[in-house]
Amino acid sequence: MSTDGQELRFEQTRLDQVMIEIDNQIITLQQNVTDIKTDIVEIRRNFWDDVTVNFDDAHEAAETYASMKQQAEVLSERERTHRHAQKQLKTLHRLKLSPYFGRIDLLEDGEVSSEEIYLGIASLLDDQDEQFLVYDWRAPVASLYYDYSPGPVEYETPSGTISGKMELKRQYIIREGHIRSMFDTGVTIGDELLQEVLGKQSDSQMKSIVATIQREQNRIIRNERSRLLIVQGAAGSGKTSAALQRVAYLLYRYRETLQAEQIVLFSPNPLFNSYISTVLPELGEKNMQQTTFHEYLEHRLGSTFELEDPFTQLEYVHTAMHDPHYKTRVTAIQYKASLPFMRTIDRYLETLGIANMRFKDIRFRDRTLIAADTISQRFYSHDPSLAIPNRMRLLAEWLLGELKEIARRERNKPWVEDEIELLDNEDFHRVYKKLQKKKRMSGATFDDYEMERKLLAASVVNEHFAPIGTEVKRLGFIDMPAVYQQLFELAKSERSTLAVEAAPVQWDAICSHTLEKLSVAQLSYEDATPYLYLKERIEGFHTNTSVRHVFIDEAQDYSPFQFAFLKKLFPYAKMTVLGDLNQAIYAHVRADASLDQFSAFFGADETETIILTRSYRSTRPIVELTRRLIDGGEAIEPFNRDGQKPTLTTTATPKEHATKIKERILELQKSGHRTIAVIGKTAQESQAAYDLLAGELPIRLIEKETVSFEPGTLVIPAYLAKGVEFDAVIIYDASAAQYSREEERKLFYTACTRAMHELHLFSLGSISPFLGALPGEFYVHEQ
Ligand SMILES: Nc1ncnc2c1ncn2[C@@H]1O[C@H](COP(=O)(O)OP(=O)(O)OP(=O)(O)O)[C@@H](O)[C@H]1O
């Protein structure tokens, strides 16, 4: 229902007043900022003038120190105030663009008149600092706006529940100081506003959704109780959006204790990182830490192995069906992702506590200083009831002591003499000074030459031994690759005492294949987490205790093994995992997997699951088609936004195929779409598509290394398009040749659900059975 002219005038007048207030505050604050800056420059310039420097005696030195400290404190207080004022100024400028988006009139129980509460991206107080002209959308009272329609309401505050009656709920679209439209809304947050927001052209960056957060999404954003929050949501249902607004909410709610650095988001790929990077700054918050699971693995394992990335693994799964090892590898991918495999490693660790731990010789100049056997004997001489990492630490201490002894003996070796001859003047000078100091200190007289030689020898040896010591401190004497390799050797041998839990029938072949890879220092993606887990259990877990919240987006792509690992890694963090099993594209995700598997990690009491079924990204006709591609798709509700039906074009030859796609791209460009994506099944197919199209159109190929994209036309493999969206999507080849195996269904679904306004499918030859199974009414078939 739209409101009448008088109301509109009232609202515009109020808005004008708020705009004037914002301008006034900007002017005052700007002046403040300039003054503080002048102060800072002044303090820096005169820092030493205002400090009395005198080091004549201990008392004067202490005075000097105190005066310097005081001056430094004044400076840092001014700098803090400056940063704070700058932040406020930025907030005011953001408010100026659109001071608020909603209003609720709340009559609290026991009050005689209602309060008009305006909601925006930040709070704004009047010039007396008394009345809220705008409330931050994260304030407790603001939850009413998202949770209720007019009528009886209640909300939680830190001091208890407040109840009352909501008499009005209104929404605005404000641009440059003018109310462009306003609606009084009912149950959901205005369809009109959502229609307007969702109907816009996409960008290469995600936008914030604070003005139109839906009730279910609000439950995710404001959830504070659960240790583990699981969000299962259809494609385009706002999982990522809810996650990001949740970060903003947590930073506001716990602003005294929580820093952005204590929140980590695991995202599906580097491109996605840049896609979402502007949302939090837009909301006036710093970005949380962002990484991909692979980046983490790489950081921990990169130099030991040639580490396969998940996209290469995916590429293999979708292109190497004719490889004789294919079945073995796919089974290995699934098994190594499982908890039975983790438990097998746990059992292996128990056996290592008793025998078979693998060590490296500590070597120097082609000589063994301490043999692996000696290290092993020492390791097993420790009390076996001590945890392995503790025994390793004791071992490292012992080795450092041994090395010190060896270093002392080493000083008389001929190579040391030779190196001394090669030393330059500076080294001699350094030793000479040391010698003088020693003499002064001891008051002794000794043979300078003899002493100098000794010192030089010690210095030469120490320099060579320092890296060995560092390596020992890093526990580099453990032969980790051999320990991991041995797991497969032992598990394979028939006499093995190591029971492999739930071993697949191809286990022997898996062992042989894994050993082959390891022998050339290659670590497959499926081995990376188990390897790191084993390493951590031996060396001691590198837990991160400062992180308070971990967000895992696209959680369906994480294996139980990886999730268990992450839980150990962040022992004090609450977890928010968001996913959609219909978009599970990795081979390690079992067909019967469910996000509920994660709940076992924390137990039912500490876990909450929220299901999002409404899809906002795509138009109704697109959702009508895409939801029929998957099992259980009838539960997905399209948001009622109209648009063209998807099209399907079948072509007979590659030439015709390329021509038709080119024509379609040109049409889409003409009709004003900002982002157009040609989505290939794999990198291989995307490269082929790019080669065909690039000569005649301005088009960009997105590869796994690409970290950001600009609006325009691009070719992208489906797995890199995960989490991202485009105005128009062209499925490069929706033929049976590309998408017919069950494993390809989810990849196909993921690709199609990237479209916001238009979806065009092209098929070279006969169409995919996934499409063939749909009634023709869901797309327009073009020849
Ligand atoms: N409440 C909302 N108001 C406005 N836009 C919304 C809302 N919820 C979701 N959207 C929009 O819908 C689109 C999809 O949202 P988002 O990417 O967060 O979904 P998702 O569930 O993470 O999707 P996917 O799993 O397919 O990657 C985005 O353009 C987002 O801005």
Instruction: State the helical fraction.
Output: 40-55%
Distance between the termini: 44 Å
Question: What would you report as the Rg, rounded to the nearest angstrom?
Answer: 33 Å
Bound molecules: adenosine-5'-triphosphate
Principal-axes shape call: globular
On the 0 to 100 scale, the average pLDDT is 91
State the secondary-structure class. alpha/beta
Counting structural domains, the number is 4
DSSP, total strands: 26
> Hey, roughly how much beta strand do the residues contain?
15-25%
* Number of DSSP helical runs: 26
Question: How are the SSEs placed, and which strands pair?
Answer:
Blueprint: H1 5-45, H2 58-97, E1 102-108, E2 115-120, E3 124-125, E4 132-136, H3 143-147, E5 151-157, E6 160-175, E7 178-184, H4 191-198, H5 215-221, E8 228-233, H6 239-253, E9 263-266, H7 270-276, H8 279-282, E10 289-291, H9 293-301, E11 306-307, H10 310-319, H11 326-335, H12 339-352, E12 362-364, E13 367-370, H13 372-381, H14 388-410, H15 414-422, H16 425-442, H17 448-473, H18 480-492, H19 507-519, E14 522-523, H20 525-539, E15 549-552, H21 560-569, E16 574-579, E17 607-612, E18 614-615, H22 620-626, E19 637-638, E20 647-651, H23 654-670, E21 675-680, H24 683-693, E22 700-701, E23 712-717, E24 726-731, H25 742-752, E25 755-764, H26 769-772, E26 780-782
Parallel strand pairs: 2-4, 8-16, 8-17, 9-10, 9-15, 11-14, 15-16, 18-19, 20-25, 20-26, 21-23, 21-24, 22-23, 24-25
Antiparallel strand pairs: 1-2, 1-6, 3-4, 5-6, 6-7, 12-13
Helix pairs in contact: 1-2, 5-6, 11-19, 12-20, 14-17, 15-17, 16-17, 18-19
The structure holds adenosine-5'-triphosphate.
